[in-house]
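Problem statement: downstream parser choked on a complex file, so we are re-checking the raw output for the S-adenosylmethionine run. The parser issue turned out to be on our end (a line-ending mismatch), but while we're here, posting the original submission so the record is complete.
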Amino acid sequence: MRFPGRRRHSTPTTASTGLADSASAGRIQRSGKRSRLFSAFVIVSVAAAFTRPGRTTTRVLARWLDARVGGFAEPESSVYARLFAPFLGRLYRRVADDVAAELTSRGRQRKAMIVDLGCGTGELVLAISRRLRDARIVGLDHSPSMLLWANRHATTDGRLRFMTGDAAVMPFGDESVDMVVSTLSLHHWEEPANVFAEIARVLQPGGVALIYDPKLVTFTDSEMAEIARNAGLEPSEIGRERVRGGLLSRLFVRFRLEGLSEEQD
Ligand SMILES: C[S@@+](CC[C@H](N)C(=O)[O-])C[C@H]1O[C@@H](n2cnc3c(N)ncnc32)[C@H](O)[C@@H]1O
């Protein structure tokens, strides 16, 4: 499997802490453990993507590993920024293409308002901004340390912005957003039903949400049906879709939630 190479990011200066020697030794030990967990997670994910038998066991194991891989959020987002995000460039470009195609098919590609939920280091926001030059894109994440990385992509004209906030309490008005997108964040949401209810609230009539999550750690159909009901939606309102494309895409599923139909407005 080949992944596109990416330049290594330098740590944002505001995140540096100036640790003493013993603290850095401890950090090296922890990062060795994280690298091993990361490798195990990648191997299990890839194996599970191609193996039917034992799928439930692999899924449980992958969820367990995922919960233990540090560095997804506070206080060590640099692990995610350095180890994970650089491998996902192809996915972000793929998702950016999907976002552009969806908006174009709805006649909403001009000056669209897009929100990336759980934007992490902001790579997807950047990829979308390259496909849709006049879109306004807000990356929302509850991790200030992730946003230290993401803010490198913010623009002075406010077209690309990053905000600290909870996906379950979005700082946007009702029916104010053309598109909500998210990658690899759903399975981290503490109360996914609250987030889906928020998405339904902020989407404009005719808008859409595309939520991508790793197949192996995300919710099953029955779990999603329960989440939809708790969000005050019909289970059928959250569609589960295959992600088409290359090898990397096979590891993901996409959930789709449509805004109200325009006639209902
Ligand atoms: C695995 S990272 C994915 C980051 C990015 N979307 C990507 O694809 O590289 C998951 C992100 O979701 C964020 N997150 C998890 N729960 C959240 C919530 N309730 N509200 C906002 N952000 C959340 C975490 O802080 C983290 O940055």
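For whoever reads this later: The beta strands are 113-117, 136-141, 160-164, 177-183, 203-214, 238-242, 252-258.
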